[in-house]
Design brief:
- The protein contains 10 helices and 8 strands.
- By secondary structure, the chain is of the alpha/beta class.
- It has one domain: 3-Layer(aba) Sandwich (Rossmann fold), CATH 3.40.50.
- An 8-stranded mixed beta sheet has the order 3-2-1-4-5-6-7-8, sandwiched between helices.
- The radius of gyration is 18 Å and the shape is globular.
- The relative contact order is 0.14.
């Protein structure tokens, strides 16, 4: 029998996403894992069930850098479940070279920003039908490394590609997305918050350059575990302390301050409008 509260976690087959799913499953929540790989996803699903003793763990496949894949995945979830209580946009990556998604977007932008934007767009009706009504976006302190935004070249085609710049921009965009969406969903009583999970050794960086990947491995013993990295996501998904909090950025289960550029509402609105145009959406949250 499915537990009443359903929590969806993207990127739940590894790292922070898997630890988040384990922690929430141990609390008795029904978990929908959204992963790209059937094989890796199924291995993780069995591990989550084993560690949590909770059988209500479901796997859905999705390429979160693909608009069409997100659309089809959310259609299946709508048909199978009918509602969501909490959506945790967790999946993300850093890429060592400039690549384009099938939609023609720079891959970091397409996965880390547009993936959050589109998956939430197609899930809003499900969240409105739920009870807890929370959206949680995993951002990063990497947003603090951004001092200007390449408005005329969001896909970073004209300048020398730098993986950390691209990743940091995408994490700033997660904060902008959180800020605007929180305002738009206030009347629907859906809260939207974001977080920095900590400096975690989780396999992150494997898709970066060889040097970056090696650097992460060397630093691994000195970094926090995915279990610690999941704590703030779990807190935001379950704690009554944040029932009324929305549009906030959290670190270690506490509200934290972002940079001046991250608090620039004109920038946030500009990115929102540009993303709507790139996505080809007429009205956010309305699925035609």
């Amino acid at each position: 029998m499915i537990n009443r509260e359903i929590i969806l976690v993207t990127g739940a087959n590894s790292g922070i996403g898997k630890s988040t799913a384990i922690g929430l499953a141990q609390l008795g929540k029904t978990i929908i894992m959204v992963c790209r790989s059937q094989e890796r996803g199924e291995i993780a699903r069995k591990e989550i069930i084993f560690k949590s003793k909770n059988e209500n763990i479901f796997l859905e496949l999705c390429d979160l850098s693909s608009h069409s894949s997100i659309l089809e995945c959310t259609k299946r979830i709508r048909k199978k479940f009918g509602y969501l209580d909490v959506l945790i946009n967790n999946a993300g990556a850093i890429f060592g070279q400039h690549e384009l998604t099938e939609d023609g977007l720079e891959k970091t932008f397409g996965l880390n920003h547009m993936g959050y934007f589109l998956f939430t767009h197609y899930s809003l009706d499900l969240l409105k039908a739920g009870t807890t009504k929370r959206i949680i976006n995993v951002a990063s302190l990497a947003h603090k490394f951004v001092f200007n935004i390449p408005w005329s070249d969001l896909q970073l085609t004209s300048l020398k590609y730098k993986q950390l710049k691209s990743y940091s921009l995408s994490k700033l965009y997660n904060i902008y997305f959180t800020t605007i969406l929180a305002q738009k969903l206030k009347a629907d009583n859906i809260t939207v918050n974001c977080l920095h999970p900590g400096i975690i050794y989780s396999g992150f960086g494997a898709s970066g350059t060889n040097f970056f990947s090696a650097l992460v491995k060397i630093g691994g013993p000195f970094l926090s575990s995915p279990t610690k990295g999941a704590r703030t996501s779990i807190y935001l998904a379950t704690s009554t302390d944040v029932n009324e909090e929305s549009g906030c950025y959290f670190v270690r289960q506490k509200k934290a301050k972002t940079t001046i550029i991250a608090r620039n509402m004109d920038n946030a609105k500009r990115l929102w409008d540009m993303t709507i145009e790139l996505a080809g959406i007429s009205e956010y949250g309305v699925v035609e």
